[in-house]
Here is the input.
Amino acid sequence: MEGRRVVVSALQFACTDDVSTNVNTAERLVRAAHGKGANIILIQELFEGYYFCQAQREGFFQRAKPYKGHPTILRMQKLAKELGVVIPVSFFEEANNAHYNSIAIIDADGADLGLYRKSHIPDGPGYQEKFYFNPGDTGFKVFHTKFAKIGVGKKFFPFPFIVLALCLFNSLCRSLIELLHSVCQQFAGISGFQRQLELWYSKVQKYYFTQLLLVLNLKILDLILVITGSESCKGMPEPIWTSNMGLFPNCYYVVPLVASNRVGKEIIETEHGKSEITFYGNSFIAGKYSTVSSFFICANFRGPTGEIIETADDKEEAVLVTHFDLDVIKSKRHSWGVFRDRRPDLYKVLLTLDGSNPQL
Here is the structure.
């Protein structure tokens, strides 16, 4: 029986600081992806211009526009209807006196299905988003498009000192993790192995808000789309990058993931002089289930569902395309028992800020 098939695409390109130029580039790449058969096409975060959050400048608030009547959204609606494709559109939103890092979901008939506002806002050197963006108030949403039920997330890459710490942790724990893998498979079986995966994951990923992925997966979806503006870090290994973008936790839930990042060098004038970021690119598509023992890499810990199927480099624009059979993936997800064995009654502490005295 023919399954539900979807063809997804991740785009990446270097931005200028001219809106028209960038939107033209986005449209050109969307058309290229459509030409390769894609019907859900992901454009990178805040693609209308430079990543302005390197600096705290009052003038940059003028880049924000209201959701309704936004010119780039309207243009992408027209394009989506013409091509019959789904296009998530990232933009800097002005809502009365509030501002959000938002993404509108445009369906294949050009209909606007609503928006998601980024929930967790970073603040640090080069990523001063708290100056510009209110925390999102939409919650984590699943959008029912023509081709698939999709969830969207906006991620930020940890700052260089966190990357270095994680790389060191990766080296120190490699042998221990491989031993854990072996022991769990031998003595605990697949269910025990999953529990150990979850325990290890919770220890390593404290800088990353994984609740978004869990909530979206509980709402029953087919694909996760993640956009970011993440910089290069010399010597950064692939496992750190793919793990931060959600590959490890999302493959744990057996749901494909499409990740889009920008490339190029951007220089912004700040109150302290020039700030420069070279973006990491390396957009990818992951999560194809394999019947053989092909494992995806995450801190040299290897899980039994999925691999990176398509990936771009850290310098060039790219149009990545691959297909998924959503029914096959759904059956595999159910067979893992991840959602069957959840115990929400034991997770009340997650509703607290300090881990004590959950009031439920």
